[in-house]
Amino acid sequence: MAASDMSLAAAAADSYKGMSSDNIKGLVLGLSSSFFIGASFIVKKKGLKKAGASGVRAGVGGYSYLYEPLWWTGMITMIVGEIANFAAYAFAPAILVTPLGALSIIISAVLAHIILRERLHIFGILGCVLCVVGSTTIVLHAPQEREIESVKEVWDLATEPAFLFYASLVMAIVLVLVFHYIPEYGQTHIMFYIGVCSLVGSLSVMSVKALGIALKLTLSGMNQLIYPQTWAFAIVVGACVVTQMNYLNKALDTFNTAVVSPIYYVMFTSLTIMASVIMFKDWDRQNPTQIVTEMCGFVTILSGTFLLHKTKDMADGSLSMSMKLPRYADDENGFGTEGIPLRRQESRI
Fold it and tell me: What distance lies between CA 76 and its chain's CA centroid?
C-alpha cells in the first residue's frame, strides 16, 4: 500500500515540473508591464481631458492632445510598459502573459479612484481580488514555451490555413466596424472602439511574439534579421499598434476609464488567447485538466473585471448609461470631465 502511495506521489511530481526559467522571466516582465500600462491609462486620460478643454476632443476626431505634455508622459509610460510586454512574449506563451493584464485594470481602477475621482465601490475591491486569483491560477498552470529555432518556423505557423482564416476574419470585421458602424455609433457605443482595438490587438500580439522570438534568437547568436519574415512581422506590428492607439484614444476620451479598461481587457485577452491557441497550438502541449484549470482561472478574471465594471455603475449610475453614453460630471471650470462644455451635454437630452 505504501509503495502504491509512493508511486502516485512520484507520478504527480513528474506531471508538474514547475515553471521554466523562460516562463519566470516572462512573468516578471509581464507584471512590470501591467504596472506601467495601468498607470498610463490615468496619465493619458488627464492629458486628453486637458487637451479637450482647449481644443477639439480626440473622441470627435481631434488631435490637440498631441500638443499636450501630460498626454505624452502617459504615452511614454505606456511605451515602457509595452516594451516590457514585448519582451515577456519572447520568453513565455501568450496564454500566460496576456491574462497578467488584469493587474493593469486594478492599478487603473485604484488610480482613477484617487486621481480622477471615479469612485471604486467596496465590491470593486472584491473584483480586484478575483482578478489576482484568476491570474495566479493561470500562471501556475500555463504551458511551457514552444521551442522555436528560427523565425521561419513562426512564419510557417502563421501561414497555416487555420490562422490565415482567423486573420482574414478579423480584418473583415475590423473594416466593417471602421467604415460602417463607428461613424454612426462610435460616440454612443463603446463596444465598437474597443472591438477594433481588441481584434487588431490579437494580431499584433502574435506578430510581437514572432518579432520578440526573432530578436531573442539574434541576441543569442542566430541572426534572424537576414530573413524577410522578421521584417514582415515588424511591419504588421507597426500597423496594428498605430491602429490600436488611435481607437483606444477615442475610447478613453469618450467613455469612463473604469469602463474602458475592463472591457478592453476582457475582449483583448479572449481574442489573444484564441489567436495563440490557433497559431502556436498552446493546448497541444497540455492535458485536459490543465486546460480546464486555465479556463477556470480566466473565468475568474472575467468575473472580477465584470464586478469592477458593475460596481462602477452602482456608484455612478445605471448600467445602460455607462455602456452607451459618455459620462460628464461638473468641474470647477464649467466643463465635463471629458473637457466638453456642459451645454453640449444638455443639448443631447
Answer: 17
CA 35, CA 204: separation in Å to the nearest integer? Answer: 21
Q: Which of 10, 27, 48, 34 is nearest to 253 (CA)?
A: 48
Burial class (CB in 10 A: 0-12, 13-18, 19+), 88: buried
Q: Which 3 state secondary structure label does DSSP give 55?
A: coil
Rounded CA separation 72/44 (Å): 7
Q: Count other C-beta atoms under 10 Å from residue 169's C-beta.
A: 11
Residue whose C-alpha cell reads 478575483 in the numeric block: 130
Quote the pLDDT of residue 57.
67
Q: Tell me, what amino acid is at 9? A: A
Phi, psi of 335 (to 5 degrees): -115, 160
C-alpha cell of 292?
480546464
Neighbours of 176 (CB within 10 A): 11
Burial 307-323 (b: 16+ CB within 10 A, else e): bbbbbbbeebeeeeebb
Helices (H), the chain: 2-15, 21-52, 69-91, 94-97, 102-114, 122-140, 151-158, 161-176, 182-185, 190-219, 228-254, 257-279, 288-316, 319-324, 342-348
3-state SS assignment for residue 160? coil
The larger pLDDT score, comparing residue 311 to residue 41, is at 41
Distance CA 134, CA 128 (A): 10
Say if CB 81 and CB 35 are below 8 A apart. Answer: yes
What cell does 265 get?
481587457
Of 334 and 264, the structure prediction assigns the larger pLDDT to 264
Grid cell digits, residue 290: 490543465
Q: Where does 53-101 have alpha helices with state H?
A: 69-91, 94-97
User: Alpha-carbon distance 349 to 346, whole Å?
Assistant: 5
Render pLDDT for 117-162 as a digit per residue (tens, 0 to 9): 776 677 777 888 888 888 888 888 888 777 888 899 999 999 999 9
Q: Which residues, 6+ apart, have CB-to-CB distance to 187 below 8 Å?
A: 59, 60, 254, 326
